[in-house]
Specification:
- By secondary structure, the chain is mainly alpha-helical.
- The protein has a domain of 42 residues.
- It is flat and about 65 Å long.
């Protein structure tokens, strides 16, 4: 319970204080020189998009590191882990196969009604 009650409110407080500080500084600059509104918005959009890109890349890296850690720590489970990771993409293959079969059998069927 302490692992959730301590760090999460502290992190949220830090994030909110940073956001409020940045908005205050931007509003003061825009108040005295309104031309800086558009560059400020552009920098904010660029920062958000780069942050999202970083989080997506970091998620994949963490997943691969977790699999590597499991493979090295528990060699008896390594075969099951490898089979599980190989099966994660099977649903996409099955969907593509069903779409191909539907297009071969019923070429005049609208694409919205296919699998």
């Amino acid at each position: 319970m302490r692992t959730v009650d301590g760090p999460i409110p502290q992190s949220l407080y830090w994030v909110f204080s940073q956001v409020i500080g940045m908005l205050t500084k931007l509003s003061v600059v825009v108040f005295f020189s309104p031309i800086f509104l558009f560059p400020g918005i552009a920098v904010a959009i660029l920062g958000i998009s780069m942050g999202n890109l970083y989080l997506k890349a970091q998620l994949s890296v963490k997943r691969e590191m977790r699999y590597t850690k499991l493979l090295t720590r528990y060699p008896t489970l390594s075969s099951f882990i490898l089979i599980f990771t190989a099966m994660q993409g099977l649903h996409c293959s099955r969907i593509l196969m069903l779409q191909f079969m539907a297009s071969v059998r019923f070429p005049m069927m609208p694409s919205a009604l296919r699998c």
